[in-house]
Amino acid sequence: MQQTIEKIMTTREVADRFNELAQEEKWFEIQDELFADHVKSIEPEHSQHPKLVEGKLAVRKKGEAWVARITEFHGASTSVPLVSGNHFAVDRFVEITVEGMGRIKAHEIMLYKVENGQIVSEQFFY
């Protein structure tokens, strides 16, 4: 009888896969593939988004609601991840037109925590 041992990805491996998908703007694929079911999404106090969203489905709905408000995409870039311990961070720039906000340019730091090969939290600083 042969046993299959599933390898748990390291933080570096998660960050590298995140980077592959981010460079292609595949943010929902990142959520599907790398987020834990109990993931948390944390926004800054001044954000118009909910400050804390918990659970993969709720985080997905938050993202879908934001994307639905984007009327035009002008460009974006995401830096290579900086990995330290069980965290990694990226610098994100985006230029978009958003319903009710007009055309905006935004820079943010996105911080991710990895446990057992999955992203368990994302936190945004802008």
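The record above closes out task 2.4. Task 2.5 opens with a second protein, given below.
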Amino acid sequence: MIVIQLANDGMGRGDEELGKRLMTTFLQVLGQADQTVAAMVLFNTGVRLACEGSPVLQELKELEERGTMILSCGTCLNHFDLGRKLVVGKASNMVEITDTMLKAEKVIPL
């Protein structure tokens, strides 16, 4: 079981605009890969990816349809006042997120 950890709404450090473009491309390519990811855990600004206005909602919806569980940190959603704006996946808590990561054979942080 592979879990991808998204702690940011962009990929890498440095140029923010580039990071967001890279994240979009990564999720598009991931959605086309033969291998599926068991879960994605989103926390800190990563929760923005699954909320209204995100440029990657379609990519996340397609991953979810392929069987990827998408868990967004509820504390993070509340912190950014996004609790009611979650579109893809479900609001979760650190207990479930930690359990998901501990059960994984591999966790890939981005």
